Amino acid sequence: MTHTEVLTRYVANFIDELYQSGLTDVVISPGSRSTPLAMTFAEHPNIHHWINLDERSAAFFALGMAKQLRKPVAIVCTSGTAAANYFPAIVEAYYARVPLVVLTADRPHELRDVGAPQAIDQINLYGKHVKWFQEMALPDSTLFSYVRGMASRAVFLANAGNAGPVHLNFPFREPLVPDFTIENLWGEKGSVKFHEFFDGSKAVTHHDALKLTNVLQQHKRGLLVCGPQEDDELAREVARLAEVYNIPLLADPLSGIRAGTHPKINVIESYDTILKSKEVRDYLKPDYIIRFGAMPVSKSYMLLLKENPLIDHFVIEEHAGFREPVGMGSHFIYSNPIAFCAALEGLNLLTSDKEWLHKWNQMNAICTHHLMTEDDPNQLTEGHVVKYLQEYTPNRSTLYVGNSMPIRDMDTFFLRTNKEIKVLGNRGVNGIDGLTSSGLGAAAHGEVVTLLVGDLTFFHDMNGLLLAKQYGLRLTIVLINNNGGGIFSFLPQAKEKSKHYEVLFGTPLDIDFFYTAELYGASYTKVTSWEEFKVGLANAYIKEGISIIEVQTNRDENVKWHQQKWKLIQNKLLKELRGE
C-alpha cells in the first residue's frame, strides 16, 4: 500500500469504529495536521460534523451537546496551542463527569523538540484531567484492528463509571490528504462493534443493608438531599423515596427534581433561603442526611454541614469517587442510586417525625410566598427574571444557566413546577467560560434552549455566537447586565469598597450589546418592564436563530433587594419556629 492508502484506511477504520460504538457527533476546528481526521469525519455518512473555528468554544459546544445527549461527543483539532485551548472545557468535563473523546493531531516523533513550527509536547497534555490517554501509533497497514480497538475503548471509557474526557494523540506524517476513492473505505460491510463491553451495576449487599438499617433506625429527623445530576429516572426515584418515608427532600435546581410531572409533595426547593440564618439552622438540625448527586450549589446548606459535623451523613455514588468538600466524616455508599432507592423503599427502615416534615413544609411555604411577592411591580429584579422564565419557558425545553449570580438566583427563585424543564449548568468547576457555546451545544439538535447568563459570562464567550450564525442554531439568551461582576457585591470584598474594588472585582464592561447582536445576526431587545420581558420571551420562542433579551439592573440595588428579601423571610421563619 502507498502512504496515502495506509493513512486513509488507518483513520477510516478508527472513525468508523467510533460510529459503531455509538458516537454520532464530532466538533472540528480547522487546521493542517488534523487534515486526515477532519476530512474523514466529514466523509463518514453517519457522523454529524460541526465546524467551530475557536477551539475553546468548540470544546464547550461539544460539552453542552454531550450533556444534552447524555453520550460522548468527539472534538478534533490540529497540533500546538489549538490543543491547549481545549483545556478549560476538558477540566469542566472531567469534574462534571461529561463524556468527551478528545482527538488531537500532532507532529510525528522526528519533528518534536527540534524547533519545528506548531510543535509542543502533547503527551499527557491534560494531565489528570482526562480518564485515559493514548499516544496513537503512526499509521501502518498492520494496525487497522489496533485502531478499531482504540476507538471502541475510547467511547466505552468516556462513558464508563464516572463519565469524563479521554484523549488520543495522533502523530501524522505528510502527505496528509486522504484518498476516498479506495474500495471498501470503512472496512468490512456489515461490521459490528470491535469490542462489546458489559458493565454490571453495583448494589448494596444484604450485610451492608443491615448495617445501614441499624444506623438509620436510631433517628427520626432525616433529610434527603439531591445535588446536581442529570438522570431523569433518578430524580423521580428520589422524589418517590421522600414521599414513601415522608422525609423532606432538599432539591438543588440542577437535580432534575423541581420540574417534571413526578410527585413533589415533600420537595423543599427554598432550602437555601431557609438556611441562611444561623438561628434557623440551629432549629432545623437533622439527625442524618442521605445525599444523591454532587454537592449542591447552596452555601447555606454547606454551612449546615460544617456546623454539625457529627450527624450521620450518607453519600450515594454509583461509582468510586469522593465528592464531600466539607471534610465531615461520611458513609460512602457505592451503588446504583436507583437500585438503592428501590432497596431502601423495600427495607422499611426509616422512621420519620411528622412534625419535622410539617415544620420544613411550613418554612418552605413562607419562603416561596415572600420570594415570589413583587414589592415594586415596575422594578426589574435579577431574581424575578427566574420567576418569569419559569412561567414562560416552553414545556419540554432546557434552561442552561450561567455561573456566579444566575445559578444562585435559579437556586432561590426556581420553584416546583409540573412543566418538563431540564435545567443544565457547568458546575464541574463553576467557571464563567464557555457558557454560550455550551448552551448552543445543548440546542444543536433542535432542542428549545434558553440561556440565562450575566454580562461578564456573555462577554467571555461571544465567539461562540459565530457557530449559531453558521448553522442557523436557535437559542434564546436572557442577558442580565449589571455592568460587571455582580456576585462580588455579596462577598466580603464589597464591604469595604476601596479605590481598587471596581477595578479588581466590579470590572464594569460598559459595552452596548446591541452591536454584538448586529455582528452575529441575532435579534436584540432591551426590556424596561416585566411586560416587555414577557413579550420578548414570547417573540424569541417563535423566531429562528439567536434572540438576545437584555435585562439591565444595578449591582448595588440588586444586593439591597436580595438582602431585604432574606431579612424579611428570616424574621418570619423565626417567629414561626418560636411559636410567636
UniProtKB/TrEMBL annotation:
Cofactor(s) of this protein: Mg(2+); Mn(2+); thiamine diphosphate
EC number: 2.2.1.9
GO biological process assignments: menaquinone biosynthetic process
Keywords: Magnesium, Manganese, Menaquinone biosynthesis, Metal-binding, Thiamine pyrophosphate, Transferase
Catalytic activity: isochorismate + 2-oxoglutarate + H(+) = 5-enolpyruvoyl-6-hydroxy-2-succinyl-cyclohex-3-ene-1-carboxylate + CO2
Transferase is among the record's keywords: yes
Region forming the signal peptide: none
Domain Menaquinone biosynthesis protein MenD middle: 218-401
GO MF assignments: 2-succinyl-5-enolpyruvyl-6-hydroxy-3-cyclohexene-1-carboxylic-acid synthase activity; magnesium ion binding; manganese ion binding; thiamine pyrophosphate binding
CDD domains in UniProt: TPP_PYR_MenD (cd07037), TPP_SHCHC_synthase (cd02009)
Record note on cofactor: Binds 1 thiamine pyrophosphate per subunit.
Pathway linked to the protein: Quinol/quinone metabolism; 1,4-dihydroxy-2-naphthoate biosynthesis; 1,4-dihydroxy-2-naphthoate from chorismate: step 2/7; Quinol/quinone metabolism; menaquinone biosynthesis
Residues of the Thiamine pyrophosphate enzyme TPP-binding domain: 439-551
Record-annotated Thiamine pyrophosphate enzyme N-terminal TPP-binding domain positions: 14-124
Broad class of enzyme this protein falls into: transferase
Entries under HAMAP family matching the protein: MenD
Family annotation (PANTHER family): 2-SUCCINYL-5-ENOLPYRUVYL-6-HYDROXY-3-CYCLOHEXENE-1-CARBOXYLATE SYNTHASE, PROTEIN PHYLLO, CHLOROPLASTIC
Similarity comment: Belongs to the TPP enzyme family. MenD subfamily.
Record's subunit section: Homodimer.
Protein name: 2-succinyl-5-enolpyruvyl-6-hydroxy-3-cyclohexene-1-carboxylate synthase
Native source organism of the sequence: Aquibacillus salsiterrae
